[in-house]
Specification:
Helix content is about 55%, strand content about 10%. It contains three helices and two strands.
């Protein structure tokens, strides 16, 4: 079962789950995929950066937008 981003409760649950994983220390770096960086992804990126976790955009779109958000 995948969460549906078009349902606000499920989107928020997904973001909460991501935050818990980021804070848990289980990840060594965060990879960004997709055709844009959403507001939830920006929040997660900021948290990762604050915790010293490298954020690595992987698609042309996320590379471009990441470089604009984090010059």
């Amino acid at each position: 079962y995948a969460l549906d981003d078009t349902i606000p409760f499920e989107r928020n649950r997904g973001i909460d789950n991501d935050i818990a994983v980021i804070k848990s220390g289980c990840i060594k770096e965060m990879w960004l995929y997709g055709n844009k960086i959403s507001s939830g992804m920006v929040y997660e990126c900021n948290l990762a950066i604050l915790l010293g976790i490298p954020v690595i955009p992987k698609t042309d779109a996320t590379i471009k937008q990441y470089s604009e958000l984090y010059p």
